[in-house]
Amino acid sequence: MPAIKVGISLPTMADLAPKGFPGIAAGARHVEQAGLDSVSVSDFIMGNGTPALEATVALSAAAAVTTRVELRFGVLVLPLRNIAWTAAQIGTLQRLSGDRVVLGVGSGGAPGTPFWQAVGAAPEGRNARLVRSLELLPQLLAGEETTLPDGPALTLAPAVPAPPVLIAGNSDGAIRRAALHADGWLPSMVPPATVARGVARLREIAEEAGRPAPSTTVWLHAGLGDEESVRSARVAFEKSLVDMYGLTPEEAPLVPIGGSPKEAAERFAAYAEAGADHLDLVVDGGDWQQQVELIAEARALL
């Protein structure tokens, strides 16, 4: 079976304090001590009263108390952000963490919401801004003099290694952007068969362009065991996959990771066989710390 890594998405939006969650710093430390491979944070500030933590600050808290796990943005919405300021933040986090950053990026993040309006980010043209930011970011992180669009030449120091970049999205356009402009593809909430088709397309486009085959990280929900809160969370999640994400009623049960650690390990293996290199899991139901331990137990069975 191909190797696969497993990490945990820390709660940074909506419910910031699920049952058993000890906070960002202690939660990240618990994930590392359990033997898992990464922690991640989302970037989903809407400005409409929905609770949300700013991604770079949250991931900095995780970096401060860990030494091994990858620190993943899942994902940072680049079209929302000034690229010079973003490069300074990413460079600082990369240096302070010992080069553990993995930069998942996307162009979504609820465009048109009050926060987008407040920072002056137009929803139109966001995919083009994403690609342009990805062109500028390596130069800025490398300490090279970089001329910004409609701006001055800028040199940041100290230089740091550019983190691996993953482009999020399930569409063919996202797959193409990942193949041509990034180190990896980050689809979300899709069954293994969809991952396999996407990976084949990803590799085809990369090969045609003479680029290395990008990696694939899949963002999923997981709730192990059989307690009531886990069962109810799974039912609600499967309904949302049909109602909001367009999956069929037959596909939806194939997405969330559940059951015993042995059954979860079999699901991990199915994604690995489909071409996934890394799973980024949102804990759904149950006691958060206990769920992390069960997921780690499943990871150890691979």
TrEMBL record:
Q: Which is an annotated Pfam family here? A: Bac_luciferase
Q: Could you confirm whether the keyword Nucleus appears in this record?
A: no
InterPro entries on file: Luciferase-like_dom, Luciferase-like_sf, SsuD_RutA_monooxygenase
Which keywords, in A-to-Z order, does the entry hold? Answer: Flavoprotein, FMN, Monooxygenase, Oxidoreductase
Question: One MF term from GO for this chain?
Answer: alkanesulfonate monooxygenase activity
- What is any one GO biological process for this UniProt entry? alkanesulfonate catabolic process
Limits of the Luciferase-like domain: 20-222
In its UniProt entry, what is this protein called?
Luciferase-like domain-containing protein
Q: Which organism is it from?
A: Streptomyces fumanus
